[in-house]
Amino acid sequence: LAGQAATRPFLEDSRPALGVHEPWHAVMLEVGRALLLVAFVLPVIKMIRGGRLETALTTACLLCVLGGVAGLIMPDPFLPDRARLTFLVERGLANLLYGLLVGYLFSRSPGEAR
Fold it and tell me: Taking the CB of the first residue and of the last residue of the chain, which one, N or C, has fewer CB atoms within 10 A?
């Protein structure tokens, strides 16, 4: 949501065309996106044999690259470069922190049975 606030000046003209009219639409999209990311990384978390720290770091890197940075590296004709780069930094950092949290919370310590 912070990225949307940071890029709002760049995207005001295209906002109705993108189908986002109310702020709660953006919140619902983010909640759905967060649930999909958790569903995506749960199998990965179960496969990692390391401790909580290794699992959290692996999940953070995975979400940072696949969930945020990969889709924003290439130029997009519908998104100005300044807005795209702002989203890239915001999505990368947000997914990195989210991945650390999800990886830590859903992993087990090495002594626990799987």
Answer: C
